[in-house]
Amino acid sequence: MGDKSPKSVQKKSSQKATKSTAANQKKKQNTAASSAKPKK
């Protein structure tokens, strides 16, 4: 599985980027949802 060809490296890095952005979006959604909730 140690494929070091430029194509596979680029694919891996793009997958990592999409993963991190998805996580960031989830965090933002969670913070927005919690801040939108009325506080008692």
Give a quick precis of the structure:
The chain is 78% helix and 0% strand.
List the main descriptive attributes of the protein structure presented here.
1 helix
Q: Which residues form runs of ≥5 with pLDDT under 50?
A: none
Radius of gyration: 17 Å
The tally of beta strands, per DSSP, is 0
**Main β sheet profile:** none
Residues in helix, %: over 70%
- Helical run tally: 1
Describe the global form. Answer: rod-shaped
Order of SSEs, N→C? H
The pLDDT mean sits at 78
Class computed from helices, strands and strand pairing: mainly alpha
In percent terms, what proportion of residues is strand? under 5%
- Distance, first to last CA: 53 Å
